[in-house]
């Protein structure tokens, strides 16, 4: 079996968080879909609430500390990404946007991404299409066709989730699994400075 890496970015601010709950549901469904395709999965979750101060420091200094750098490397090095944000004022949260603002501009090029969002009412559902999807289009990621929105009432069904929401989760997870399983490992971004063939001293001498 091939082992794929899946990064999950959760922008929820509370603990427990409905945003993290949706991310967990999407992750479980994607792992199951990949397993059905003969792929094992390693999952790494990035809780943005843990990096709020790190992100603010990065914005004003231009440098990420070790904790934030680890989170960034987790996301940019993954075979696939699940990105889930709460919706505030009809758009993604500021914390969610800030994380993707500090990434290198080409860091997510070609990366398969499943988009999710949560809010108190279904009135916010279109924010996924008019705000969140354009962000990842700008980053040149490959977003799956089905984005998953969950309002408060969607968690009231059997097993803690509405049947319609469960169907959207399974459909989106299958779409992400199709993209991830069809993506060669070489498609992941390569850091041109990770294994330099010329020493720093030679570069200074102009060699």
TrEMBL record:
It comes from the Bacteria. Pfam families: FMN_red. Residues 183-207 are annotated as: Disordered. Residues 6-155 form the NADPH-dependent FMN reductase-like domain. Keywords: Flavoprotein, FMN, Oxidoreductase. InterPro entries: CE1759_FMN_reduct, Flavoprotein-like_sf, FMN_Rdtase-like_dom, NAD(P)H-dep_FMN_reductase. One of its GO terms (molecular function) is oxidoreductase activity. Gene3D superfamilies: 3.40.50.360. PANTHER family: FMN REDUCTASE (NADPH) (PTHR43408). NCBIfam families: LLM_duo_CE1759 (TIGR04037). This is FMN reductase. It comes from Blastococcus colisei.
